[in-house]
Amino acid sequence: MSERLGAKTTAQQALQGQSLFGKQAIVTGASSGLGIETTRVLALAGADVVMAVRNMKAGEEVATTLRASLPAGSGKLEVKPLDLTDLASVRRFSDEWIASGRALHLLINNAGVMATPEGKTVQGFELQLGTNHLGHFALTTGLLPALERSAPARIVVVSSGLHTRGKGERLLATLEGKPVPYTPYGAYGDSKLANVLFAKALAKRLPAGVEVFSLHPGVIPTPLSRSMGAMGAVFRTVGKLFMKTVEQGAATSIFAATAPQLAGQSGAYLADCRVAQPTKEALDPSLIDKVWAQSEKAIRA
Q1: pLDDT tier at 234, thresholds 50, 70, 90
Q2: Which residues does residue 14 pair with via DSSP β-bridges, in sequence order?
Q3: Which of 197-230 are b and which e, b meaning 16 or more Cβ less than 10 Å from the residue's Cβ?
Q4: For residue range 279-296, what is the model confidence (pLDDT) as tens digits?
Q5: Helix (H), strand (E) at residue 107
Q6: Domain map of the chain by residue range?
Q7: Rounded to the nearest 5°, which phi and psi values hold at 251?
Q8: Backbone angles phi, psi at 236, to 5 degrees
Q9: Counting CB atoms within 10 angstroms of each CB, which of 4, 44, 115, 218 has the fewest?
């Protein structure tokens, strides 16, 4: 069936009819955009999904709406607080999960910010890199014991085709806390390049039975563009004419999380429900190891 999957595939189609009953999943950024559809399809297939969100009120409202729309027998939805801009919040989330002894089969690192005005996380990291990469780096490494004991398990890292705008030298400098001239899209590209590099580095360190994939979801008119002001409003309105729908945009995340044909390809970068080629820097072994080492150092500082 994989040959039928592509750019127009929806998240529900990307599931390929599989059942996820008995599976435990976490979706970050589950209160908007692709996170809602990813959560819906996982629950529809029977997975119990924890919606990890910064805004609990928004998360509970989305969960209530989804519960009302899902058929009987779908997986359970639970909303938990997670602020990726604050490593203390990330540690609380992962520590509580590990202490509970809960299984974890699917971790979908979906949340993100895009082209924001210059800003800092609670710990002082550049906002986009801190949110999109370091927050998820800390969350994933903190949850590894649960993923390992629940194998087979998968980790999905939502990157972007705009990782091609990232620059390894600038990314490392930012991670090291050196002064770097800020541009919204340059910083976004660096954070998305970091996502791909993280997946590549993590794949080398995971035990058998746990796999990780990074991906480009496509160009979708979601609230991710809210930081773009008037340009973002135009993007979301006009984009509906030629971009992917949210249902199509979430497809590669579902594919990465569930497709049996991806077994044995941990670390691969995906787009349009198939293995794709990332930028050359994303394949640089030296950069992969340096970003891992510097990220570890950053979250432990």
Answers
A1: low
A2: none
A3: bbbbbbbeebeeebbbbbbbbbbbbbebbbbbee
A4: 999 999 999 999 999 999
A5: strand 106-109
A6: 2-300
A7: -60, -45
A8: -70, -35
A9: 4
pTM, two decimals, is: 0.93
pLDDT score of 221: 74
112 vs 130: CA distance, rounded Å: 10
Q: Which of 182, 185, 188, 269 is catalytic?
A: 182
Q: What CATH class has 2-300?
A: alpha beta
Mean pLDDT in residue range 201-215 = 98
- Burial label, 143 (beta-carbon count in 10 A; 0-12, 13-18, 19+): buried
Q: Which two tokens stand for residue 37?
A: 């559809």
* Helical (H) or strand (E) element with 28: strand 24-28
Q: pLDDT tens digit string along 58-117?
A: 999 999 999 999 999 999 999 999 999 999 999 999 999 999 999 999 999 999 999 999
The answer to whether 82 touches 89, Cβ cutoff 8 Å, is yes
Instruction: Provide φ and ψ at 130, rounded to 5°.
Output: -65, -40
Sheet of 106-109, strand order? 77-81, 48-53, 24-28, 106-109, 153-158, 210-216, 269-271, 274-276
Residue 153 is inside which H or E element, if any? strand 153-158
- In the structure, what pLDDT confidence band is assigned to residue 2 with cuts at 50, 70 and 90? very low
Neighbours of 10 (CB within 10 A): 19
188 is catalytic: no
